[in-house]
């Protein structure tokens, strides 16, 4: 397979005022496209041609010689999910099964919200924060540096937020907490998260 840049599932200005058209244009058209283009170059001769993106991410993470391929394949996978984890007029109600699982795992939605934001705020440098389903079938919060993702660690990502500076600096400057609050309160596509939870 070759990596392909997906179309955004909404217009560039659809997430305003919480994420600007300028941010989405730079993030999708330049940053994500760069991961796709570089990833395709690195895939040639890697021995992983023809594998699924998930297989490429897992295999390249385990092979230090394929670190550059992992960085680009991992970021491609992360961003393919990230665009779908957001929607216009996001936030709001959570599908019942997922809502119950969040309350069972964290005690309340507010506790989950706080832990998710904290993970993003305390991820030093570039990276991601995640809501994942672990191998025991429980929900947990995790954070990863750079391109790393739950997939590389054998866990299923249900929700992720990009805390690389290019995700928020145009709109929020250095106020990463405000970006994370806007993400969880106003941008999350909980229906998509619920679909992933049901499949997992």
TL;DR of this structure?
The chain has helices spanning 21-43, 53-62, 67-84, 96-106, 109-122, 169-172, 176-187, 190-199; strands spanning 127-133, 139-145, 156-162. The chain is mainly alpha-helical.
- Helical percentage: 40-55%
Beta-strand percentage range = 5-15%
The best one-word shape is globular
Distance between the termini: 24 Å
Number of strands: 3
Q: How would you write the strand order of the largest sheet?
A: 2-1-3
Order of helices and strands: HHHHHEEEHHH
Find the CATH topology of the largest domain: minor pseudopilin epsh fold
> For the report, how would you describe the main beta sheet?
3 strands, antiparallel
- Overall pLDDT metric: 97
CATH superfamily of the largest domain: Iron/manganese superoxide dismutase, C-terminal domain
Number of helices: 8
State the assembly state of the protein chains. Answer: single chain
